Amino acid sequence: MSSPNFLRRYTELPFLIDFLATGELFLPSPKSWDDRNDSYYLEQYAQLCGLEDVYALCLTEAPETYHHWKVFSSGSSGACIVFKREEFIAAIERIDGVFAESVQYKTIREMRGASIPITELPFLKRYPYRDECEFRLFSAPARYENGGLRVPLPKNTISQISLSPWLPKSVASEVKQLLKGIKGCSNMKIYSSTLVENEQWKKFSAKVT
After folding, report:
1. Which has the closest alpha carbon to 143: 55, 52, 56, 57?
2. What are the beta bridge partners of residue 162?
3. CA 144, CA 165: separation in Å to the nearest integer?
4. In angstroms, rounded to a whole number, what is the distance separating the alpha carbons of residues 26 and 149?
5. Using CA atoms, how far apart are residues 201 and 194, in angstroms rounded to an integer?
6. At what angle do helices 13-22 and 169-180 cross, to 10 degrees?
7. What is the rounded distance in angstroms from the CA atom of residue 92 to the CA atom of residue 11?
8. Which residues of the chain are under the pLDDT cut of 50?
9. CB-based contact 170:143 (threshold 8 Å)
10. Contact present, 126 and 37 (Cβ < 8 Å)
11. What is the pLDDT of residue 142?
């Protein structure tokens, strides 16, 4: 199966504004992640490599889904940054110590007889999470970064930005103007997601026979 030509990062407005204003993606420590199996593997990687901490950011290779909005960007402050895949990866590859790979989803049965290279630890997850279709940024810097790691990323890697489908239209209009007012963002494509209410979809009901 070929890879999609996009990568999506579901986030919240404060982190989106921070990225647009600074030109840097913020990679947090995985210690507070809900999936303790996932964060445990990253902690083991850090321990085996003699590091104080590691940093990671989750994106997805999946098209827009209700699941991703609800789990990763639920509520009116959610946002989704759609990146151009090739440009995004090319920019990341120019940064020393930052890696970008698709996550591999494995069953417990598969793992029982497996020999796991240490380089795969940061990109392994349990099979029940496979619908995430995660693509991960990962970094293990030599020195400890308090709170998280900042990674420079050009704005031209962005294809478009979608605002939460639960954000009221009148508020969304003001938010769009605010985002476009950030330096270098005046021509950026910013839309409100119509996932939960799409007028074109509603009109199809008129075709009932």
Report:
1. 52
2. 80, 191
3. 37
4. 6
5. 10
6. 20
7. 19
8. none
9. no
10. yes
11. 67
What's the confidence (pLDDT) of residue 6? 97
Strand 55-60 relative to strand 134-139: parallel, antiparallel, unpaired? antiparallel
Residue 131 is encoded by which pair of tokens?
């619908």
* 105 close to 24: Cβ distance less than 8 angstroms: no
Q: What is the pTM of this model?
A: 0.92
Strands 148-152 and 55-60: what pairing? unpaired
Q: Over the chain, what HEC string results? A: CCCCCEEEEEEEHHHHHHHHHHCEEEEECHHHCCCHHHHHHHHHHHHHCCCCCCEEEEEECCCCCHHHHHHHCCCCCEEEEEEEHHHHHHHHHCCCCEEEEECEEECHHHHHCCCCCHHHHHHEEEHHHHHHCEEEEEECCCCCCCCEEEEECCHHHEEEEEECCCCCHHHHHHHHHHHHCCCCCCCCCEEECCCCCCHHHHHHHHHCC
Q: Return d(Cα 14, Cα 178) in angstroms, integer.
A: 12
Tokens matching residue 163: 């605002």
pLDDT digits (tens, 9 = 90+) for 69-101: 999 998 999 999 999 999 999 999 999 989 999
pLDDT at residue 117, as a whole number? 93
